[in-house]
């Protein structure tokens, strides 16, 4: 039933997907669906909820680790490739759950998941700004540009969305994401954390 539901949601989006057609393709009655799921949205959630929650945990854990590094005795200095590990983790998770994330990003209108992209942006912005504040406290005269933090959070998430929606394979996406991550971290360091010259 999940495979049939996924195909129907992918083709038509949540709002236009037909529960009757999902059941017909799965060879079950609509009554059988209601035995396992509360409604159509619950069926959609069975596909996307767990991968989305796991992604939020990956992002949360990443910022927690970065905060520990930043709060150490040494002032953080950007080095090319030092965010390759999070790029690998994100790409692996996104591509193992490719269909679920494509549904979340492009077909979730009308569900409680339709704002998940905004939720990820907000989480990214909050994490980046907390780290920027910690760094600014260590650098005399430094301050945080909150607007740029908001903008860079959008740019960061949109970059990963672009990889998914342009249907690159995981290997190619990983190569691009590492370059992109270096670019974003360097840009973040130069625009969100404003240092006195």
Please outline the helices and strands:
Elements: H1 2-16, H2 19-26, H3 30-36, H4 40-70, H5 84-96, H6 98-106, H7 116-138, E1 143-144, H8 146-165, H9 170-191, E2 193-194
Antiparallel strand pairs: 1-2
Give an account of the 3D structure.
This protein is mostly helical and 197 residues long. It has a single domain, classed as Orthogonal Bundle (Tetracycline Repressor, domain 2), CATH 1.10.357. The protein has nine helices and two strands. It has helices at residues 2-16, 19-26, 30-36, 40-70, 84-96, 98-106, 116-138, 146-165, 170-191; strands at 143-144, 193-194. A two-stranded antiparallel ribbon has the order 1-2. α1 runs parallel beside α6 (98-106) and α7 packs across α8. The longest helix has 31 residues, at 40-70. It is elongated, with a radius of gyration of 20 Å. The model has no long low-confidence stretch (mean pLDDT 92).
